[in-house]
Structures are given as C-alpha cells and as structure tokens.
Amino acid sequence: MTVLTTPIGEDAAARLKVGDTVEISGYILCGRDAVLPKVVKMIDEGRAGELGVELAGQVVFHTAVSPAGVGPTSSNKLEIESSIAPLSRAGVKLHLGKGQLRKETIEALDKYNSVYAVIPPVTALLGAKTSEVRVLAFPELGMEALHLIKVEGYPAIIGAAHGRSIYD
C-alpha cells in the first residue's frame, strides 16, 4: 500500500504502477461531467488561478458531492474523459473514478506523468473518510459544482499509468 498526501509530487506519480493500491489523504477536487469542461475552459483561457487552488500535484475525483456522500462516476463519459489530458497538462497528478479509459487517454496520462485510479462504489466508506467540503466554483450546479474536500485514507487502485492499463 502506497500512502499519498496531496499535493502529489512528480516523483511520487512516476513511481506508481498499474495495480498498486494507494491511500490518499489531503485536499482533493471533486467534479464530473457538468463541471470539468468548465474547468478545462478556464485553463485554456488562462483563468485557472480563479479557482483558488493550485492544480499542480492535485487529485481530481470524478464524483458529485451530496448529503448522501461521494462515490465515483464513470470516468469514460465524454465530458469527463476529454478533461483528463488538459487537466494532466495543467499539473493534475491523479484522476479518480471508475471504468475503462481509451488508449489515447492512457497515452496522455503517460505524457504528463499523471495516473488514473479506480475507486469501487463505496459511498458510505468514502463519506466517513471525508472531513471537509467546500464549493470552489460553479455553485449553480449544486452537487455537481467543483468541490474541494479533505480526505483521510481514501482507498484506490492505480488503473492506468505509464502507457499501461489494468483493462489491457
């Protein structure tokens, strides 16, 4: 088990291998198909600083945040998967979600020394490991707004790293 604390450094990301189990602690971003394209647009427009959080070394969890807790959504939804390369280019080191990614996305992860980890749909467990929740941007999207949460010991499995995938 590898313990990761955010922000995640380049060396830590480079050491992760497909199939590794990790526990993630620290602040992570939560967003899914309604908000991630908006974040990518802000990056493209040079306005990512307006989010109030540094993207370098960040973790993005593909989820909404609701009173019921947090649980992964499918990362291979068009709006989510198409955000992975630009977010990785902007410095995000770890993407959390579920499902198989396209080969092109796995290659982009490799290019930017970023990885993808799968989290089983365990909403109650993850809710118990979440201690803070704050809306950062796009509050009009409700539970699908961009959130920053503080976590302790989030379990995940590296699903794609360095050009390889557990789905190969």
The number of helical elements comes to: 5
What would CATH call the architecture?
Answer: Alpha-Beta Barrel
- Total count of strands: 8
CATH fold call: fumarase
Poorly predicted runs of 5 or more residues: none
* Overall residue-averaged pLDDT value: 93
Question: What is the CATH C-level name?
Answer: Alpha Beta
Helix and strand sequence: EHEHEHEHEHEEE
Structural class by SSE content: alpha/beta
N- to C-terminal distance: 22 Å
Describe the protein's architecture and organization.
- The chain is an alpha/beta fold and 168 residues long.
- It has one domain (2-165): fumarase (Alpha-Beta Barrel).
- The protein has 5 helices and 8 strands; from the N terminus they run βαβαβαβαβαβββ.
- It has a 5-stranded mixed beta barrel.
- Helix 2 packs parallel to helix 3 (78-89) and helix 3 packs parallel to helix 4 (103-111).
- The longest helix has 12 residues, at 78-89.
- It starts with a strand and ends with a strand.
- The model has no long low-confidence stretch (mean pLDDT 93).
